[in-house]
Amino acid sequence: MELHTRINLIGSSPRFQAVVAQIHRMARLDASVLIAGETGTGKELAARAIHYLSGRSDKPFVPVNCGALSDSLVESELFGHERGAFTDAKTASAGLIGEAAGGTLFLDEVDTLSGKAQASLLRFLQDRTYRRVGGGGLRQVDVRVLVASNADLDELARTRQFRKDLLYRLNVLSLRMPALRERQGDAEELAQATLQRLSHQYRLPSKCLHADGLDFIRRYAWPGNVRELENVIHREYLMSDDPQLCLHDSRQQLLAEAVGPAMTDGMRIQDFGDAGFRDAKAQAVAEFERSYVREMLARADGNISQAARLSQQDRSAFGKLVRKYRLGGTDERAA
Ligand SMILES: Nc1ncnc2c1ncn2[C@@H]1O[C@H](COP(=O)(O)OP(=O)(O)O)[C@@H](O)[C@H]1O
Ligand SMILES: [Mg+2]
What we know:
Elements: H1 2-6, H2 14-28, E1 33-36, H3 43-52, E2 61-65, H4 74-79, H5 95-99, E3 104-108, H6 115-127, E4 129-130, E5 139-140, E6 144-149, H7 153-158, H8 164-170, E7 173-176, H9 186-202, E8 208-209, H10 211-219, H11 225-239, E9 244-245, H12 248-265, H13 277-299, H14 304-310, H15 315-324
Parallel strand pairs: 1-6, 1-7, 2-3, 3-6, 8-9
Antiparallel strand pairs: 4-5
Magnesium ion binds near residues 44 and 108.
């Protein structure tokens, strides 16, 4: 019921439906969930769905972007502070954790938390107690913690940038949001749903996708996932005079972006600052590789094997470069 009124998880692909089933199951379990996935894959939407499908749905859902909090303020933002705790603390604050009482706290980009904040979060997860900044006693609050990250937390834990003990606490349950390119048929479905939503929102006549637009949506790799797709549809919906969207302008733009600044502007020596010759050369080569691979992927509509052929490169060598620069692309062998 709530799902239909507040959250709409679109996508009929088996891959995504498996995730939806996991979301329903996790909503019933009152444990922390670590939500992983590339940018724009719906991590926050999944967190909201878990909250609104859970027994906590009539209590607050409090989303926090940890990456947007400054190191010096993160603890007082999360755990609150007493009056006079620091110069600007004119009044006491309950913090986001206090705001979420009885409900769910969603920590996005959890990998960006400072070491100190990680320690406080770990303590809270262990015994549900915390202290406000600037003293006061131990406080207790009933809050479910969901976290998300697009970083490789295992790798960060291995290199000691993220606490291992915190990672173990957080990923009791873990949910991986698949990239849009891994979700057969969903891009098209999402595009159609977005068009419907837009005509309601703007109270304008509905528009549909021209066969060429549809073809592009199916074949493009969507490195920015659902968010990128929504943006493209939104822009085209507003800017195109045609009731049938071909996505011609967006297609040109995405291709131009794929070429990258280095290839369009030319590289200037001063851009390398005072890097020595070896470092400057390595940077230039990396810049070239990234631009080249992006361009070939764009020409091949995101198909890695085809892009490798266009580049006259071995499939596995080309695939390595795609992964090195995290350029996405579809892998028909994995499908
Ligand atoms: N399965 C989906 N169905 C409908 N909209 C989606 C879906 N996945 C993502 N979105 C939309 O895409 C955008 C990005 O989602 P978001 O949850 O913010 O991604 P992330 O947090 O992973 O970057 C939002 O507007 C969200 O509503
Ligand atoms: Mg997000």
